[in-house]
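Exercise: predict the fold of this chain.
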Amino acid sequence: MKKSLLNKMALFCRMLALYPFAALTDAAGFGKYIWWHYLVFFAMTAVFYTVGYLAEKIIVSAHFPKAVRPIAVFISRAAVLLPTAAFIILASVLDLSAMVYMYALPAGIIAYFSGYRAYGQEYSDLFSVGWFGLFFTASVVTCLILNFSRVPELYSAAVVQLCLVFGLMIVFASLLANQTNIDQRTRQRSAGKSVLPNGLRSYNAMLIAGISVATVALFLLAKPLATLIVKGIGAFLGLMLSLIRDHGLEMDYYDGPGGENQVGQLAEPSDNAAFAILWALVVILGLIAVIRFRRQIINFFKELFAPLFRESRRDPPQPFADEITDTLSKSDSARSRRRSEQQLLRQFRRETDPRTKFRLGYKLFMVKLERSAFAPLPSDTTSIHAQKGQSAFRREDIREMVGVYNKVRYGEAIPSPEQLEKQQELIEEIR
């Protein structure tokens, strides 16, 4: 399947994960379900998503100075206030229900940061298990609120809608998982061509069959399961409220000089003295703990808000690693991961041993190749490295350099000063 189609499918699943917010907004805000309200809701989330996507694209593409970049990152994340303000103004002008602010606006904010994180991601990263968790949590909260509303029609219709949407998400997620599995397994190489391992098609068929069975079971058991979860949460909340009532301060009625049966006067605290003393001790111990661990608390809040000023780390997707070993040794590749390109370049220039110097130069070449559009795979051979290097940098002398590396790495040859000089010129010139 085309990658653009898979990306759109993953984005569609992300939007479906916000469906419980739409159902709850309609039920709580308008008391009924109207089909075109859903179109307006998802158009609103699409606007938030687009603004977030463009904000991240600007941050990644623009070349801000190092001192200004943290501020620019913070502004790009705080830019969620722009569509939020537009949403509030529009809702006020149309005199919409307050439920729109409570249930629709959080969905828009989630969509904004979803778009903010989506720039540069592939379909396997666009839709993950976390979105199922969001959908499930929002669905449980929706069913709980509608169940307490004492309107059975709204509750039953919401459960049916959520089941249908969840089944649709399962179908699309199975297709994405199937294609992701194929993409990972076909990273094996044979003479530069992709190879589909034996048994992969049967495995994917079993995967889709299992997901289909789970979907059918969901439709059969969803409503009883939802009712059971809602009753369990209701029983838990009832238990907590009863404990609060049993241990709280009691309200009493008495005839006083200001009038009869005044409400809100506290009863004699004889029965609640122990409870009041306990709360006082808890408060005192809490203040002592805050004073004692004030530095840890301050550092915690610093770490909590630091990501607002820190640029997101974007690790390249890791390909499937098969039994073919990398051209570099494990210790070398581990060291190269720990060093930056500048540190590696300084080590390359200081190295006096010709064989080690040439191998360091080859690692620098691989670092530059990883940044190009022809990034190497762990299973690529040195001949494929040469092909990708020529395609990425348009240099014919790359193949010659790779040939010398093969002799140095596998034939114990010692490179000549001319070969070392040519390699250094090549590394400094390619970008």
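Check your answer against the key: The first helix runs from residue 3 to 16.
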